[in-house]
Amino acid sequence: MAEFKEKKGLFGRFIDMISGKPAEEETNKKVEGKKSPPLVINEEEGFDLGFVKRFTHSGGKFLYCDDENEAYTYIRLIMEESGLGKIYCKNENLISILRKANVDISEDFLESDAFCSECEYLVAFNGGIMLSANQLKGKTLEELPETFITIARTSQITDKLRTALAGIRVKYHNNLPSQITTIKGPIKLDDIEENDTGKICSKEIYLLLLEDQL
Known about the structure:
Elements: H1 23-31, H2 47-57, E1 61-65, H3 68-82, E2 86-88, H4 92-100, E3 104-106, E4 114-117, E5 121-123, E6 128-131, H5 133-136, E7 147-153, E8 157-158, H6 161-171, E9 181-184, E10 187-189, E11 199-200, E12 204-210
Parallel strand pairs: 1-12, 2-3, 2-4, 4-7, 5-8, 7-12
Antiparallel strand pairs: 5-6, 6-9, 9-10, 10-11
């Protein structure tokens, strides 16, 4: 995943890997009322980079982490720069990461500013993050805080929705979890169909991608 490693700072201060231009310049273009350039996907680059391009093109914020120590730094910066207080998280592995990042964790989603979870898959076809009831824990997307922080591994990137669903069937021995949905940037895809145009979603989504542990 060497192509993800060219970065500087956070959000508006890192080099846009897609255009090669500073993100501030892209933001200024939008302020001036100009349309963003069309998304160009080179299939030879691989579906992993294709996922990143589609995810960020839809408004998602992507951060590649060389290791968990870098993830701690990014989580603290997300909290600071976004003015977040407490994070709602029900995953024990992620709670351990959040604690090491010195983040306040809450068991009450109503008093939390952000929701942190893992995911089932990262789908290159639409740049979406696939979630299920195993991450949402019975809550709807609308009930959860307006900021999502997803922590995923590089091995979770897959090419198509059908491949992700096939992986879920294997993972859960054909006992598919409920609430399977795919979200990306400001867009939510309710129906798991390859031609879905999606619905508007107000969530702000951050994705921290880590290499798999050896």
